[in-house]
Amino acid sequence: MSRVGKKPIPIPTGLRVSWQAPVLTLQGPKGTHTLHLPEGFSVQQDPNHLILHRPSDEKRDRALHGTYRALIQNAVIGVSQGFQKVLEIVGIGYKAELKGGDVLLLTLGYSHDIAFVLPQGVKAQVVQERGQNLRIVLDGADKQLVGQVAAMLRNLRPPDPYKGKGIRYADEVIRLKAGKAKGKGKK
């Protein structure tokens, strides 16, 4: 039996769950999330918990049991609390500005500015504190979507391995490479 799959999923207060096989719909203060479960999987709802049951002990069903339990857990957390990713912009002249609520205008050292359109369900906030790097805070109810948008933004200007300039996750540690040795070997 899957150790992850058989764990019950706690339901926080204020969350509405509806199960119409094979669709599980979760509604909470942060939004609505719909999951399509594979054929044969069922959800048992207690007053405070959800329990996912698999149809058989076949290899495919055992593999999907823990995966879908984790996806349901992430959806419950997403619609009740939400997910957040924080990116830092490091570099002189690098800027970010929010236009119209859903377009990030980024100046990243290229010959042109980059207009990044945020997908529906992800909100961004640009935070500038004195003495700190410029930060972009991404919020959303879908963990996968928030992570994907953060990765796409980071990919616009990944951190430079020599100076550390670029876009990085706030908790990311960049190991800088040594540059050329100056004047070594000359006499």
Strand order of the largest sheet: 11-12-7-13
Spatial gap, N to C terminus:
71 Å
**Number of extended strands:** 13
Total count of domains:
2
Low-pLDDT residue intervals, each spanning 5 or more residues: none
Assign the CATH superfamily of the largest domain: Ribosomal protein L6
The average pLDDT is 90
For this structure, what is the CATH class of the largest domain? Alpha Beta
Q: Main sheet?
A: 4 strands, antiparallel
Summarize the structure.
The chain is of the alpha+beta class. The chain has helices at 59-80, 143-156, and strands at residues 9-10, 16-20, 23-28, 31-36, 42-45, 49-53, 83-90, 95-99, 103-107, 114-117, 122-127, 134-140, 166-169. The strands form four sheets. The chain has a four-stranded antiparallel beta sheet, covered by helices on one side. It has a three-stranded antiparallel beta sheet with strand order 1-6-5.
What descriptors fit this protein?
single chain, 19% helix, three-stranded antiparallel sheet, Outer Surface Protein A, domain 3, 187 residues, 2 domains, alpha+beta, 13 strands
Give a description of the structure.
With 187 residues, the protein is of the alpha+beta class. The protein folds into 2 domains: 9-80, Alpha-Beta Complex (Outer Surface Protein A, domain 3), CATH 3.90.930.12; 83-169, Ribosomal protein L6 (Outer Surface Protein A, domain 3, Alpha-Beta Complex). Helix content is 19%, strand content 36%. The chain contains 2 helices and 13 strands; from the N terminus they run ββββββαββββββαβ. The protein has helices at 59-80, 143-156, and strands at residues 9-10, 16-20, 23-28, 31-36, 42-45, 49-53, 83-90, 95-99, 103-107, 114-117, 122-127, 134-140, 166-169. The chain has a 4-stranded antiparallel beta sheet, covered by helices on one side. A 3-stranded antiparallel beta sheet has the order 1-6-5. The radius of gyration is 22 Å and the shape is elongated. The termini are far apart. The model has no long low-confidence stretch (mean pLDDT 90).
